[in-house]
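Justification of computing resources. Each target in the renewal requires a structure prediction run like the one illustrated here; the chain below, 656 residues long, is used simply to show the kind of job we budget for.
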Amino acid sequence: MRPPPNPAWHGPVPWPARLTFGPPCCTLPTLDLHAFVARHQGLLQQERAEEIAQQERLLRTRSEAELEQRGVLLRRLEFADLEPGLGGALHATLQQSRGGSLPPHRFAPGDVVAVDATDGTAVCNGVVASIRHDRVVVAIDDRDDLDLPSLVRLRRLVPDVTFRRMHEALQRLLRPIEPERRRYFDACFLQRDPEFSPQRRLEAPIDESLDESQKAAVLHALAADHIALIHGPPGTGKTTAVVEVIRQAVARGESVLASAPSNVAVDNLAERLLQKGLRIVRIGQPVRVLPAVVAQSLAVQVHEAPEQKLLRDVRHELRELNRKWLRASRSDRFELKREQRRLRAELRTLENAIVQGLLDTADVVLATTTGCGDALLSDRRFDLVVLDEAAQALEAASWMPLLLGNRAVLAGDHCQLPPTVHSDEAAKGGLATTLFERIANSPSGKLATRMLTTQYRMHERIQEWSNATFYGGKLVPAESVRSHRLTDLPATIETDATKDPLLFLDTAGCGCDESEGDDDGSRHNQGEAAVVSKHVQQLLEAGVRADQIAVVTPYSAQVRLLRDRLGGIEGLEIGTVDGLQGREKEAVVLSLVRSNERGEVGFLSELRRLNVALTRARRHLCVVGDSATLAQHEDIAVLVDVLQQRGEHRSAWGMA
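Resulting structure tokens:
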């Protein structure tokens, strides 16, 4: 049954421009799918080229010593050990050739890296599996032609697997498909209004704690014949609603694929589903999976399968052969290749049989959007695909999981930060416009979307600007958070620093001028850093724990400056706005940095970034900024008014 037509829509025409929308009762737009795919692939090529160019500029303009100082290169490493890892990878342990600890660096588990000879010749690529103070373990492909030199260097890479899989997903959109799936794709591409089948509804929620807007969103998603959107503003329990949708689908006997653009988001969903007693399989390299759900990763479950004794025997043979190969001369290595190939083939056959059995018996399969492009899922079809954080996934990335389903539920918030796009040209061309945003802003958007309206995070004053600016004033704080303050926390006393939920420390006229941009164009503000540092100290002295506080700023140069000042406080989190998206703290101190006579606010004019920054705090939000500069931007002037009229407005004079 088709729901009634949506009211007239008067928003801007979203990308791609070929999708020209008429009134809701008129004929829906005609899509040239080949042109859509070609355009999007072109934008991806621009983005890939820009990422590579940025990396090449860094490598070209910096010496190896400078790259090592920046933490993106480790030099003069040697192989200390080789052993088979989970998922058929080879774990190579690298250490300093002269012994001792590794120099300070920015490598972390999950990073894609290149292993090069000291003369720059490529050896292989891999993924950082683990790091200790004196060694790094890299998971690499166990290739027949692998030849490891005595000394190597390690550098971070821009991975290409994501781009390759996105291109492949777009290309698959052009393949002939059966009529029912054509209706699914047509709804996603706005060629038809979304349709709903009430007979698919379940009246009683499994989770009785759901609020009314969550129940409405869940029932709406369950009734969707093709696609439904759950719009989850900050703190509204979006993941709770998504988990309920998945549990209801599993209870109906449906196969479910759950995905998200980041490993953290997938693991968060996996942990919640695991707590509800569902059998899950998490696809992805164990080195990228959070400890709480690593036991549910596919590789670990294969490793612990009853058939493991056979696998263990083959791996033991292969391990001994690899170590023998590592010590062998070049001529002797050639003799060992045939036996290595036989053992690898036997290992792959055994592992594949176990993998398919685990996927067949799982209630829910989970993977990142890129992971959904893995060949082991290519022949599978799921009754339902759930894509969480869909407003942070490039459209091509969204299609990797969506192509594996018969219908889809997308959950996210297009009023927060879009996916990161490095190429300005590609972003302007529409690459930053997500599938979620495209559908939500279309004539069919109101039919497809249900918004969650009760928020469980912020004091009512903290939510005011975001609620009015982005959510039509529909957000209602739950009674449990409406008036909560820092002084309600154990051992926290009331002081000038803790008594107000919304505080604006105004640096106008205080001489807190911003710096010129650094080599990367990022800015800092010494005066603001001093104000922030003093306020953080006041919060700590009043009894707020360091791990309850986040110091946030849009600029990476300001992050470095603040870490120099406050980095010694254990538990205190200091980072960019982008890094805090999806998370919360009891107290947030926000440094806006910009202070100049020209009224330039830089990318603060991206209001969605401000929306994220201002909605991370639960009980206390302190904004540090220059009202004279900020108020010269028409939209940000509204925020300044809210801070001055609805919050506690103080001059920062004497704090800098």
